[in-house]
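hey m, so remember when u said the tokens were messed up on ur end? i reran from scratch. heres the input so u can diff it against urs
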Amino acid sequence: MAGVTAPRTLRSKRSLNLRFDIPISKTSRFWDALSEGNFVTTKCGDCGRTSFPPQPDCPNCMSGNAEWVELGTDAELLTFTHVLITPTSFVDHDPYLVAIGRVKGGINILAWVEGGDPLKLKPGDKLKVESRKDEQGSPYYVFVIA
């Protein structure tokens, strides 16, 4: 637009390192199961709502009566995006795929997709949830093409 100038900004060439300490004592069973290749979450023992990610307290009725349930590792691709311009926090990663997949019980989860071809992926494709460990040994999960 004519007459509009961009706001002044400062650009830094310094790296930004972020560290998050997330307490997991009430959801440690999820991380332990993930380390063993199992995929679990919580279900409220009072109202029956299943939550993902696992919640120590039900977001629906606020009960602390959580039960652990198996989600399995089979998933169906709902949608995905191919990230070509990586955010600063992922600058060391190649372009990557992020998807939403539906697992048992109608639970939708978000994860990176390993080994997927963005030109061949389509909603309805079968996925598997697999566990991985990062450089520090912390578990995380990804989708792989089934």
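this time it looks ok to me. The longest helix spans residues 28-35. if urs says something different then somethings off w ur setup not the seq
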